[in-house]
Amino acid sequence: MNRSRHRFPITPIGWLLLLVPVLTAFLGPLVAGSTRSEGGSLSPPGPEHPLGTDELGRDVLALALSGGTSIVTMAAAALLLSYLIGVPIALVIAGGRRRWADRLVLRLLDFLLALPGLLVLLVLAATGWRGTTTLVLAIATLQLPAVVRIARTAALSPGTSTAVESMLMQGEGRARIRLGYLGRSVLGPVLVDAASRLSLVLYLMASANFLGLGLASSATDWAVLIELNRDALFIQPWAVTVPALLLVSLCTGVNLVVDRSLSNRRTVRR
What we know:
Layout: H1 12-31, H2 60-66, H3 68-94, H4 99-113, H5 117-126, H6 132-155, H7 158-169, H8 174-185, H9 187-211, H10 222-229, H11 238-269
Helix pairs in contact: 1-2, 1-3, 1-11, 3-6, 3-8, 3-9, 4-6, 5-9, 6-9, 7-8, 9-10, 9-11, 10-11
Pfam families: BPD_transp_1
InterPro entries: BP-dependent_transpt_permease (IPR050366), MetI-like (IPR000515), MetI-like_sf (IPR035906)
GO cellular component, one term: plasma membrane
């Protein structure tokens, strides 16, 4: 079999589902029309508004084209931050000799894991901690327990543990083992987890924005639009389904691309 065919993941459907919302998020604002309230509330599609208007009388097509930048950027920032902090913590406690430190970190993370995400966001909103930076930091912190546990489990797998012991016997430094070998070992599980965790982050972003923790409830954001217009789903479905489909496409595309990429990576190694 010619292995060169598997060097690059070829996933037309996955890439299509991924690129449509991403390109819409970053190029859509360049061609979007006005997002001001110019029509009646929840108007059906017509010549002036091809997809109708939303609860606030704004053009749904313009909102869909201009509402992706904030949610995509904030979700990516929260995910990236949680893994940049969580994975190194997992590698340190997994490759260390101090079992008490491992148990202490896990117990602290268990306490954080027990806190309901929405309740934490509600408390932050009630105490005046608002803004996009606060939202990104809060959601990234809420993801830390799961991220650390997944990376730690991957680093402590039987095959990995045997290889680490062999490298220690050969005189390899612990820092090199943690950042080098263990880092590569947890890459696959971490990428799969990040792809599936994106939907949870988007849900928390939408709920927080609707509560006024991050963006205003009138912001041109896909997640905010869904929360704002969900009660009018059967009156003006486009105001809900268009941003919802873009978010579903984003999550599905990321998962398909990551899964196929890892599958091709394993095939090439064989």
